[in-house]
């Protein structure tokens, strides 16, 4: 993994020995025949439960989206479609104008990731490395916004966006998203762990502070930047209320807002196909980066 | 993924742990720094100052001012004192919305807290494939909420929905789920739990893996069994995470919006109108931004008081030594 190469304040071994892991039951117990049997049963039970509750509804959505209306409504339902109706997908794709809405979502998400990363990394670089006078106060004021729940702020924020004339403008989503205290906090915490000697050395070698950021700090922070970026992308793909408020023009809306708007008025088989198609990008993204996302979430959410 | 290893010693705790001062890492004490610069520092801070200033700090103040005004964008804003707050108290739906929000929050706390904890405990015991299990459990969290909600809306259909098909297959009576005031909120809790349990579970998994194996070994030497290890080691070691996630759960669930908006629209008969939905309706259905802002301020105060009480009640427990 290329982004693993530099770890601030860590021994430089390419592969750290795996730390000892164990659960509540002692590893020895699992070696006994009874423990082995118990472990296997627990494993099977877990697989069954998770398969049923986590995968079950998704499986049902996926298989049902290939059925025709008659098969969708029949009781008892079928496990697999009798005939796989790919035309549900073709119709949903063209009639619901999915390409337009998925493109809208991509534009919104891409801009959000960009503004979030730029604002958070410049702010964190300033607060962690440049450390201007009064930076502590600014950091405190930024962190304080973590305690402001989104529901409390969306009405005055909407009024502000309206006064700025940003309704039906993607900036109305990109800019407020940039005010993410959590990103600033995460990046500052990461930048704080970069050895100061390295930064001082870059200054002695004649790097400007911009070059220090570009050539030392950012490359060393690739892992955390990628996690912040992926999470911002996924969150943006999932967002609903705010895009619905600031993008009343249907032609600009992301796919979530469009689906909620038309949900009842579309034939079920087309709706299901549209649900699947609008989930595919974010699910694929998750499956590609799942190890990084899951480890990252475990790390940052504490 | 070594860089993101949750075992790394943390200089500080979650941002939710306390005030701003606590969240900041200790200042490095050194006289000479070649990288310090106040002027450039503020140049680099400028984007954040603008973003937070215009889209975070200013709207907070704006919201408080709005709550004392009559605003409809057609005419000038008029100062009306506490009239907006008085109007809220006269609105019977506002009180109903509080009751619904409280019921939803209480139910989803019980279900949404226990289910992920048990799952995390079991996943942590599994020797093989733990990572795959965690990814599978997280999959519903990845789906866009609108997709999950429209899917479940179909499941909840009294005639052709999967929920009733399953009930009938086991010889039960079909329910009216989100269309019956009695079962509407539990149905929302069911969807909400399905869509979010993976996220809480990941936090618990990380916390479980952070427990030092030596503690269990010492307990085993002292003859502790499975239950006593859970009671005396696992739970005490996780208490900080448990308290924080409980609080975040509480704050998050009191703001529930998308579930009732997409599934029920607040119905049937106001049975699922939550406080966030009510704020939305004031502002964007009735064009009464003053009332919406006042309701937001009330929600903010309630959340602040709830948080304060919670932290006060758990202060003896929340020692920071996980």
Automatic annotation (TrEMBL), chain A:
Coiled coil ranges: none
CDD domains referenced in this protein's UniProt entry, alphabetically: TM_PBP2 (cd06261)
GO cellular component: plasma membrane
Keywords in alphabetical order: Cell membrane, Membrane, Transmembrane, Transmembrane helix, Transport
Location of the protein in the cell: Cell membrane
Record's keyword annotation contains Transport: yes
SUPFAM superfamilies: MetI-like
GO biological process: transmembrane transport
Annotated stretches, region: Disordered: 1-20
A Pfam family the protein falls into: BPD_transp_1
Transmembrane segments: 40-62, 101-125, 137-159, 171-191, 212-237, 270-289
Main location: membrane
Biased composition (Basic residues): 8-17
Membrane topology: Multi-pass membrane protein
Positions of the ABC transmembrane type-1 domain: 102-289
Annotated family: Belongs to the binding-protein-dependent transport system permease family.
Record-given protein name: L-arabinose transport system permease protein AraQ
Gene designation per UniProt: araQ_21
UniProtKB/TrEMBL annotation, chain B:
Biased composition (Low complexity): 14-25
Membrane-related topology note: Multi-pass membrane protein
GO BP field: transmembrane transport
Manganese listed as a keyword: no
GO cellular component entries: plasma membrane
Keywords, ordered alphabetically: Cell membrane, Membrane, Transmembrane, Transmembrane helix, Transport
Segments of this protein annotated with the region Disordered: 1-25
Domain of life: Bacteria
PROSITE patterns assigned: ABC_TM1
TM helices/strands, residue ranges: 39-60, 102-123, 135-155, 194-219, 240-258, 289-313
Stretches with biased composition (Basic and acidic residues): 1-13
Family (UniProt): Belongs to the binding-protein-dependent transport system permease family.
Protein name: Lactose transport system permease protein LacF
Organism in which the protein naturally occurs: Occultella aeris
Gene expressing this chain: lacF_10
């Amino acid at each position: 993994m290329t982004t693993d190469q530099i770890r601030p304040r860590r021994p430089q071994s390419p592969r750290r020995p795996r730390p000892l892991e164990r659960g509540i039951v002692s590893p020895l117990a699992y070696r006994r025949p009874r423990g082995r049997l118990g472990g296997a049963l627990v494993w099977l039970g877990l697989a069954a439960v998770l398969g049923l509750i986590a995968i079950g509804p998704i499986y049902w959505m996926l298989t049902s989206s290939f059925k025709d209306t008659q098969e969708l409504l029949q009781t008892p339902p079928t496990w697999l479609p009798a005939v796989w109706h790919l035309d549900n997908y073709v119709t949903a794709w063209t009639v619901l104008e999915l390409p337009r809405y998925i493109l809208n979502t991509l534009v919104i998400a891409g801009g959000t990731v960009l503004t979030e990363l730029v604002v958070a990394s410049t702010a964190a670089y300033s607060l962690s490395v440049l450390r201007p006078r009064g930076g502590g106060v600014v950091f405190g004021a930024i962190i304080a916004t973590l305690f402001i729940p989104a529901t409390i702020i969306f009405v005055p924020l909407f009024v502000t966006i309206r006064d700025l004339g940003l309704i039906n403008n993607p900036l109305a989503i990109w800019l407020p998203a940039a005010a993410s205290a959590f990103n600033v906090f995460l990046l500052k915490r990461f930048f704080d762990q970069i050895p100061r000697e390295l930064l001082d050395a870059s200054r002695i070698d004649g790097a400007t502070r911009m070059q220090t950021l570009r050539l030392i700090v950012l490359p060393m922070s690739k892992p955390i930047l990628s996690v912040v970026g992926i999470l911002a992308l996924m969150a943006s793909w999932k967002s609903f209320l705010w895009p619905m408020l600031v993008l009343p023009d249907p032609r600009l809306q992301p796919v979530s807002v469009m689906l909620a708007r038309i949900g009842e008025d579309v034939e079920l088989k087309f709706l299901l196909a549209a649900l699947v198609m609008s989930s595919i990008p974010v699910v694929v993204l998750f499956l590609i980066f799942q190890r990084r996302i899951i480890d990252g979430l475990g790390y940052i959410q504490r | 993924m070594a860089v993101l290893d949750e075992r790394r010693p943390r200089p500080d705790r979650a941002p939710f742990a306390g005030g701003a001062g606590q969240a900041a890492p200790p200042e490095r004490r050194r006289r000479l720094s070649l990288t310090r610069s106040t002027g450039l520092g503020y140049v680099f801070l400028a984007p954040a100052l603008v973003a937070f200033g215009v889209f975070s700090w200013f709207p907070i103040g704006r919201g408080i001012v709005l709550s004392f005004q009559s605003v409809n964008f057609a005419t000038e804003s008029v100062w009306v004192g506490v009239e907006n707050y008085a109007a809220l108290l006269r609105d019977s739906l506002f009180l109903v919305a509080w009751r619904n929000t409280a019921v939803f929050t209480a139910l989803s706390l019980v279900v949404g807290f226990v289910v992920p904890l048990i799952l995390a405990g079991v996943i942590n015991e599994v020797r093989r494939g733990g990572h795959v299990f965690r990814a599978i459990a997280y999959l519903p969290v990845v789906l866009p909420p609108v997709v999950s909600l429209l899917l479940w809306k179909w499941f909840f259909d009294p005639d052709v929905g999967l929920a009733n098909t399953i009930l009938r297959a086991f010889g039960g009576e079909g329910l009216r789920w989100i269309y019956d005031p009695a079962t509407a909120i539990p149905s929302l809790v069911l969807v909400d739990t399905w869509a979010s349990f993976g996220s809480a579970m990941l936090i618990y998994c990380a916390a479980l893996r952070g427990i030092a194996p030596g503690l269990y070994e010492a307990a085993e030497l002292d003859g502790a069994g499975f239950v006593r290890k859970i009671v005396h080691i696992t739970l005490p070691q996780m208490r900080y995470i448990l308290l924080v996630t409980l609080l975040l759960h509480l704050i998050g669930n009191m703001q529930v919006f998308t579930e009732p908006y997409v599934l029920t629209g607040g119905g049937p008969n106001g049975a699922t109108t939550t406080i966030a939905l009510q704020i939305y309706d004031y502002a964007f259905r009735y064009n009464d931004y003053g009332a919406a802002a006042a309701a937001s301020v009330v929600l903010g105060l309630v959340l602040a008081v709830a948080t304060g009480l919670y932290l006060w009640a758990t202060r003896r427990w929340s020692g920071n030594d996980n």
